[in-house]
């Protein structure tokens, strides 16, 4: 085989011109390949072929359950009769129930990963740790599973690491409180957190949450049915000596029952108040909201009434302000009895996470006030995103976006990571890109913003369909979804009616 000429004729020098030409040719070739790959990548954008998987979801199709990813592709085929639970849709942990016998109340459970491999097989039983809030919204404790071996329970994380050995007779969530598990050993109960750390040693007859957050501490009951309080650092604040402890606490003040007497005590067991009330509703700052019969009052720590009240209802909101009701109308007052928001609403609530007030008027619209009680807008709030700091409001037939200073923003200013943005023209909806170029013509009667997985729901002639992130129609408007509270799609599958189940379907 001949050897290519590398040197100038008759010399040992490198032929510079040929080398440079060769290098340039290679660079051009590489640039062409990269450009071609970008074209392919762009062309496939939204199809799911080249998209990273951002989540996993139960799917119900053809009468069976499976799992799809955020590109709409099957991860677990729909072959199960019972719903597959995905406790954290960012993790490939799928809880599958099978061989269920309703007559004997027996069933089997296995855990699969995205490769359809059974994992955590060294345990006799695996269960989710489900919980719910005061509105009965269900959630699962993060990154932990309850496991059983030889009749005893422990907990593992999603990597299979043992966090709590299988030596407990019972493990269950402390309802309405996250990251707090009731554990039982030798007939006595304690508390551990989601890392398996013992917060309260299992030495008590029973334990209840003191408030709605684990940091508020716990009510403990001893074998003599005497009640005390222990904090989240396993320090006994109030010895078990009372007939009961109410789930009310703030600023190291607690409400206990001593015989027939309700007392407010501090963490040194000193009695602050023991008369002037039949019920303690809340303790806020140094103020105590109490109730006698149908009458509400706000007392200071000395038992003095802070203002005369003739309200049908009082509820603490923030600062020194209270939501109040009178003659069927709701407003907000301060501790001096001054009206901060007039009594003209059906209901009022304070959004603590976003620091604004929602008031429902007689037309069932939401009127919004800032925390200084300045009126800001009226409409239907469809989303409050604390992570990105915006509020989405439907005003009339239009969707508008505001930051938490209530400055109106365009959706392509405030929504990050989207390829399409909802737009309206002449009463019809379409989509534009970040540069305001029309990508999807204004032909739809209604539509939704692109979700985090790149899909947008569109409505035409009372039927819903879906487009991908490039604006291509995946499913023609086909589905009647008038009874669905939330319209959302993953590929061709739409979100089911029961939002607590968080599943997708095409049925």
Keywords:
mainly beta, 2 helices, six-stranded mixed beta sheet, disordered N terminus, about 500 residues, about 50% strand, seven-stranded antiparallel beta sheet
**How much helicity do the residues have?**
under 10%
What's the overall geometry?
A: flat
Helix count, DSSP H or I runs of 4 or more residues: 2
Spatial strand sequence of the major β-sheet: 32-33-34-35-36-37-38
Tell me which oligomeric state these chains represent. Answer: single chain
Unreliable parts:
1-50
Topology, number of strands: 48
Relative strand content? over 45%
For the residues shown, what is the average pLDDT?
A: 88
What structural category characterises the helix and strand content?
mainly beta
Distance between the terminal alpha carbons, to the nearest Å? Answer: 67 Å
Sheet with the most strands? 7 strands, antiparallel
In angstroms, what is the radius of gyration? 31 Å
In short:
This protein has 507 residues and is mainly β. It contains 2 helices and 48 strands. It is flat, with a radius of gyration of 31 Å.
Description:
- With 507 residues, this protein is mainly beta.
- The strands form twelve sheets. The chain has a seven-stranded antiparallel beta sheet.
- The N and C termini lie far apart (67 Å).
- Helices cover 6% and strands 50% of the residues.
- The model is unreliable at 1-50 (pLDDT under 50).
- The chain is flat, with a radius of gyration of 31 Å.
């Amino acid at each position: 085989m001949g050897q290519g000429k590398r040197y100038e004729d008759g010399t040992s020098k490198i032929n510079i011109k040929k080398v440079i030409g060769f290098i340039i040719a290679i660079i051009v070739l590489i640039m062409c390949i990269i450009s071609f790959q970008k074209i392919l990548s762009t062309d496939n954008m939204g199809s799911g072929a080249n998209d990273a998987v951002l989540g996993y979801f139960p799917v119900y199709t053809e009468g069976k359950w499976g799992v799809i990813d955020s590109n709409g592709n099957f991860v677990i085929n729909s072959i199960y009769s019972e719903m597959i639970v995905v406790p954290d849709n960012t993790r490939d942990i799928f809880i599958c129930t099978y061989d269920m016998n309703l007559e004997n109340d027996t069933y089997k459970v296995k855990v699969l990963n995205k490769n359809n491999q059974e994992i955590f097989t060294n345990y006799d039983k695996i269960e989710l740790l489900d919980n719910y809030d005061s509105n009965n919204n269900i959630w699962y404790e993060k990154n932990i599973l309850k496991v059983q071996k030889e009749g005893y329970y422990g907990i593992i994380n999603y990597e299979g690491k043992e966090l709590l050995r299988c030596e407990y007779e019972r493990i269950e969530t402390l309802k309405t409180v996250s990251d707090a598990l009731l554990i039982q050993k030798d007939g006595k109960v304690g508390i551990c957190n989601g890392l398996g750390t013992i917060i309260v040693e299992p030495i008590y007859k029973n334990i209840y949450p003191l408030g709605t957050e684990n940091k508020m501490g716990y009510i403990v009951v001893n074998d003599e049915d005497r009640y005390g309080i222990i904090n989240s650092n396993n320090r006994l604040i109030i010895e078990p000596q009372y007939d009961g402890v109410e789930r009310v606490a703030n600023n190291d003040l607690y409400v206990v029952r001593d015989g027939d007497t309700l007392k407010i005590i501090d963490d040194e067991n000193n009695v602050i108040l023991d008369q002037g009330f039949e019920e303690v509703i809340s303790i806020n700052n140094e103020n105590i909201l109490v109730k006698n019969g149908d009458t509400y009052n706000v007392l200071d720590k000395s038992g003095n009434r802070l203002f005369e009240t003739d309200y049908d209802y009082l509820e603490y909101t923030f600062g020194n302000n209270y939501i109040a009701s009178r003659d069927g109308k709701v407003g907000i007052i301060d501790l001096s009895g001054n009206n901060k928001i007039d009594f003209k609403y059906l209901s009022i609530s304070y959004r603590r996470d976003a620091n604004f007030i929602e008031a429902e008027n007689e037309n069932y619209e939401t009127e919004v006030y800032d925390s200084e009680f300045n009126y800001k807008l009226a409409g239907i709030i469809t989303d409050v995103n604390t992570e990105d700091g915006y509020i989405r409001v439907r005003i009339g037939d239009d969707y508008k976006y505001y930051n938490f200073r209530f400055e109106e923003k365009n959706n392509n200013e405030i929504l990050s990571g989207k390829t399409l943005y909802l737009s309206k023209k002449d009463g019809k909806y379409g989509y534009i890109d970040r540069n305001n170029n029309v990508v999807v013509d204004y032909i739809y009667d209604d539509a939704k913003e692109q979700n985090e997985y790149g899909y947008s729901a569109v409505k035409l002639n009372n039927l819903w369909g879906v487009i991908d992130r490039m604006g291509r129609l995946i499913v023609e408007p086909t589905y009647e979804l008038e009874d669905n509270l939330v319209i959302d799609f993953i590929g061709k599958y739409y979100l089911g009616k029961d939002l607590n189940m968080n599943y997708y379907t095409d049925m």
